[in-house]
Automatic annotation (TrEMBL):
Species assigned in the record: Halorubrum aidingense JCM 13560
Origin organism lineage: Archaea, Methanobacteriati, Methanobacteriota, Stenosarchaea group, Halobacteria
Domain of life, per lineage: Archaea
GO BP: tRNA 5'-leader removal
Molecular function terms, GO-annotated: ribonuclease P activity; zinc ion binding
Family: Belongs to the eukaryotic/archaeal RNase P protein component 4 family.
Identification of the protein by name: Ribonuclease P protein component 4
């Protein structure tokens, strides 16, 4: 595990804590910084972190506060409450 991936993990933790404390602007900055570090160092975001963030507005998604999660046959639908974008992920039951 290199320095960029350690920083991305730390920023993920900070973004989650900022959303819990209702500081959405700060969480958005942490997510944007983590994406920038991943792009610069060509290491990519972890799968769990990329699914918990909105691709359009960089907000950390927390069900019930910043996103709505719905189960549909064969997929999970996540809607961002900040920008209204929708993400669909396959799901096997």
């Amino acid at each position: 595990m290199g320095i960029p991936s350690e920083r991305i993990d730390r920023l993920s933790t900070l973004a989650r804590e900022a959303v819990v404390d209702d500081e959405y602007g700060r969480a958005r900055e942490y997510v944007a910084l983590a994406r920038r570090i991943a792009e610069r160092n060509r290491c990519g975001l972890p799968g769990t972190f990329s699914r918990r963030t909105c691709d359009d507005c960089d907000v950390y998604l927390r069900p019930g506060r910043t996103s709505r999660v719905r189960l549909r046959p064969g997929r999970v639908v996540v809607r961002c409450l900040e920008c209204g974008s929708t993400a669909r992920y396959p799901f096997e039951s």
